Amino acid sequence: MRDTRPVAISCGEPAGIGPEIAVKAWAALGNDIPLLWIGDPDHLPPDTPVTELASAGARPAAGTVGVLALDLPGAAQAGQPRPEHAAGIIEAVTVGAALAASGEARALVTAPISKKALIDGAGFAFPGHTEFLADLAGCHRVVMMLAGPDLRVVPATIHIPLAEVPRRLNEELLIETVEITAAALIRDFGLAAPRIALSGLNPHAGEGGAMGDEEIRIIAPAVAALKARGLAVRGPLPADTMFHARARAGYDAAVCMYHDQALVPLKTIAFDDGVNVTLGLPFVRTSPDHGTAFDIAGRDIADPTSMIAAIRLAAEMTASRS
């Protein structure tokens, strides 16, 4: 049975490319996946046909973008975020999460935000969408996955300085990250017995302790504990040999020790169609795997491929949960 509920799209930073790629995604997908834009309709590209809706369950007029309107004071100026928009941007995410959690929307897709603009304009207290959505949902722990057609990666630590990574890594963190990842691969991606690979932290996965001992002290014990719980995991593996095509065929997701260790291979392999996914939430949330792109905002040249991929994946994950 076809799911007629919309995928909600929170407006993100209106001075960036979010509004443009959302409308381009609507043009590409609107007949297949209903979309609901949450934000100020005046911030959409000029001449965008819109229908302002009173609820997520209402249907827009044919050939128009459905909008759940929020009043963000003042016009959006391409490439120039305005502090007075920050509260409305945060409200759009909050409303979208509530709609997805209640089932009124089938999923939430978040357009890119400028964290600095939210901090400057509204004192935003979170490193990014992932942590904010976890707080809204009351989740103790969620996991960030970046997913492309040929690779899924999970950073065990995310938005922290590289110097902090060895101090933050511990066996409990890795076990929890892998368990959340495995559960999501089963529930959201339809994999009955997911295979997960863990990277090392140091060059050559520590070279038996010659280049660091985190692999011996932390990562290998976590792998052993996870295997004892019946999960198909292996590692620690040298990160420089984990991501070629033959290696990728041996696992369904790679858990890496820090942000760039995970995101560099993903963005190299799937720069245009990578998707950011938050695992462990009670609802489905995805996002395009890029930022606000202030440098090209307002020029009608932004590539919507990642936004389209985020919407498609959100719909597929919702269907898998069903």
Walk me through the structure.
It is a single chain. The protein is of the alpha/beta class. The protein folds into two domains: about 190 residues, 3-Layer(aba) Sandwich (Isopropylmalate Dehydrogenase), CATH 3.40.718; about 120 residues, Isopropylmalate Dehydrogenase (3-Layer(aba) Sandwich), CATH 3.40.718.10. Helices cover about 35% and strands about 15% of the residues. It contains ten helices and twelve strands. Strands 3-4-2-1-5-12-11-6-7-10-8-9 form a twelve-stranded mixed beta sheet, with helices on both faces. Strand 11 and strand 12 form a beta hairpin. Helix 1 crosses helix 10, helix 2 packs across helix 4 and helix 6 packs across helix 7. It is globular, with a radius of gyration of 20 Å.
Give the arrangement of secondary structure elements.
Elements: E1 7-10, H1 18-29, E2 35-39, E3 50-52, E4 65-69, H2 86-102, E5 107-110, H3 115-122, H4 129-137, E6 143-147, E7 152-155, H5 165-168, H6 171-187, E8 195-199, H7 214-228, E9 232-237, H8 245-248, E10 253-256, H9 259-269, E11 275-279, E12 285-288, H10 305-321
Parallel strand pairs: 1-2, 1-5, 2-4, 3-4, 5-12, 7-10, 8-9, 8-10
Antiparallel strand pairs: 6-7, 6-11, 11-12
